[in-house]
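REQUEST ID: PR-0412
SUBMITTED BY: lab tech R.K.
PRIORITY: routine
TASK: structure prediction, single protein chain
INPUT:
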Amino acid sequence: MTTHLDTAVEAPSAQTGPATYSRLVLPAMAANVFLLSLIQTVVIPALPLIGQQLHTSATTVGWVATATMLTASAVTPLFGRLGDVFGNRRVILVALGLTLIGSLIASLGDSIGVLIAGRALQGASFGLFPLAISVLRHELPPAKIAHGMSIAASALGFGSGFALVATGVLTQNDGDYHRIFWLTVAATVAMIGLSAKALPRRAGLGGRVDYVGAVVLGAGLVSLLLPVSQGHEWGWSAGRTIGLFIASAVILLGFGLLQARSSSPLIKLSVLAHRDVLATNLASAFVGFAMFSVFLGATYFVQAPEALTGYGFGASILRTSVVYMLPGTLLAIPLGPIAGRYVVRHGARRVLLGSTLIGIASMTSLSLLHAHSLEFIVALVAANAAIAVAYAAMPALLVQHVAPQDTGVANSVNSIMRTVGGAIGSAVVISILAGSAQVFQTPGGPVALPSESAYVTAFVLGGIGFALAALLAAFGLRRDTH
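STATUS: complete
OUTPUT:
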């Protein structure tokens, strides 16, 4: 008996692809993925500065990062489905338009409330990843699809690294935090122009959009991510933290029942339950967890004053960005094409497995060898490479097992899993560092700084995240057919 899933698995090989295609499509989609990664990461190093310049507490300023993530969880699956049904070009331009409005609000506002509102609108940019992958599947010739998707997906790592560097440069010497949002304005305007020129006007594949399901899923994900991101401030045993976790479980269960009974579901649960799709999504969450263990742990570690703590390098924000983060960011530029070639020649599963093994080695090095700058930088470069290549392999894994009309939604779920993993990683690292803080006396007054063992724990947990992703690649995914 032939099931929908059997047809979906065979669909990519049966796809003929366009007879001609614009050579701007791949650069445009990679640039859009870069933009969403830039917007996600650019505020992280600047949160203390924003709090200082707006005279607000660390708890309140944390919503500058949280608001974007919450919007992303709500709109990403909806945008993916809208692109499949009505055409990707139209939905990409809408997502970019919302992102531009949010960037302008954040750039022009002078209060924390206005800034949070702007960041919430910027969350629309997260929908660009599944839309970009869907565009590449439908616009590139079959022989170029896997390579193209790997290049676009690798822009996630490059965008995050670039954001850390850019923030360090733009905010040095207590520079105005508005500068980082003017950067996102300029980048978004460029993406709108490039996307409008590169993308052909094509109709979608048709079908219906389950708007009720989108609302329910968004509510469930917001109920999950809100306590994950704020639990370290509210308290993990606080009533609202536990209540929201329970609410998320109930709502997401209700979403599953709703989708099972729907004739036009937002997400086909049978596709998500497929062994390879499930393993890829779980691997995305574990790599997302490891990514934030690296970025947050390393950023704070290198800025620790060694004279006080006995560890760290006393780096300024600018030195952190240029000396420690920039090398890995620059390496991510050629890694996309290289990873794409390996995916085509050796299969996405092997590429994912190899990248996670590199990630394990890098986190082991960060845990054990962090007394000297050079060894720390080498480990960071390896970790950046692992993250970029791992995410480069995942869209190709998904496309092998979902039908063309489900490409956007399937990659939306993968993107959500990455967001959930990153949110959990961020919360765990912050909780570990805050929980070990010791007070040191300085000429400027007392300063609370984490212990060295807390950073080691964070790096070890990042290594465990890579290890779990490696196990999924080795045993959860079926062997490549190459």
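NOTES: The radius of gyration is 21 Å.
REVIEWED BY: pending
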